[in-house]
User: What shape does this take?
Amino acid sequence: MSSSAVAPSPWIVRAGWDLPLVVLTPALVIPLLLLWRAGSGDQVVYATVLAFGALGHHLPGMLRAYGDRALFTRFRTRFLCAPLFLVLVCGGFSVAGLHGVAMVALFWGIWHGWMQTYGFARIYDHKRGSVARTTARIDFALCAAWFVGAVVVSPHRSFQILDQLARCGLPLPSAAILDVATAIAWAALCASSLLYVAHAVHLVRAGTPASPQKHLLLGSSLGAWWIATNAVPSLVFGLALFELFHDVQYLAIVWAFNRRRASDGANSGGFTRWLFRGGFTSAGLYVGLVIGYGALGPLAERVGEGAVRDALAGALVASQLLHFYFDGFIWKVRERDTSTSLGIASASAAHAERRGLRHLALWSLFCGPLVATALTEREAAPETERAMAIASLLPDSAEAQTRAGLQLARAERAHDALAPLRRAHALDPADETRRVDLARTLAEAADADLRDGRAPEARARLLEAQQLEPAFPMALRQLVAMRAEAKDLAAAMRAVDMLEIVAPGPDARFDRARVLAQGGRLQDALAIVRAILATAPTRLDVREFEQVLLRSLGSR
Assistant: This one.
């Protein structure tokens, strides 16, 4: 049989590569992150993935942009001007404390994830020869409905959107508008899914079925997005989950793509041919470079201070936006060089027109919102007011309730903070941070109750806090020491009162004696110390303190 008669592979590389790294990646990523989360907690997982994964995976696209001679020659102006422009804009916004760039990055990031999933779907259909526009449009609609719809119906991701709008001084939608948007999102999710299934059945009956790999890919990718946005109560863990899944897919496709480019060698640069020459050493160096680039994130947080640190933070956001921007045109399947390196070249593949003015006009979609938010952010409501408004709109968002509660607590409104913090804990009872936040705020409210003479209310709050946090007495003991060291003896005595409610005993009484001694009430302290020694004569620390008190009294 001639080579021309051999059927093309339906895989980008091969089944053993595509299934774990592209098609069924959630089956690899989700169990890994759940195990990691159990041992380290949400915040550690989030910080690590965002630092090394999210930032690190920007590098491969830049290697393509600046290492592919033909591509760089074609888009030289974009590759030279865009980084400078974005670094200046993002750095400036960061130093000025403006949030417009973060808002644009959030929306652009959702689009970016949507486009990556849609792009993979089209690659697998192209592998099977399915290039009909109707199929492509249905795939696009499905991805649009799921990526946007899952955010709209998610109380966790809706909080993220509303928070960015409020930070930028933009008006929040009413509860009625949110309800309408949620209904539309559910309708789009159902309609697009039914349309996709109906079209798939139609193609099978017509004898031109779509790629099975595409069906698996869309099922796993959209499922992972749904889990990350809706099934996981923790916003930060959900973000880490989808980010790692997205990063693994991206690194895998870039490796496969550049391996083919390096083997062809026609238009790829010398560094590309060397780095992607193949083998374990080459793969290890590739991953090492990605991790090294990702390490710039934690490093930037430790370099400089004030405006310098803010400028570096802005540069990292510029890296993210540059990644989104480059990926919008350097991986287009309709481009001959791209399709050839993905093994889906066809006679119809051709370079798209440059359309310079059209491309320049698209930059208005980036610049317009930035200019607008730079003006509206001046009128943004105070942070506590924003947090309470969002919490009222999203009663089922643990993140929104937590934010509102913590802002109220910082404004010394601990009693008002308890309702949203209790709601957040009820929505996400497994989250240790929310439990600790509630216990700490209960203590603050109890402290205010004792100060105002409401001992029964204080006792009830303290016992509730103790049930939430087994280490609560230790935290109160630290509070006693901290207040005593600050010479705030009245507050230190209230902390002792709280400690004796949750952990009555000689240790709490000994703390009271030490606070009394610091306040000059040596006789009262000595009386408590001797009462402790009457029941626990072997307490050497208490006996030594008794001697200190006696010497102090004798010197008077």
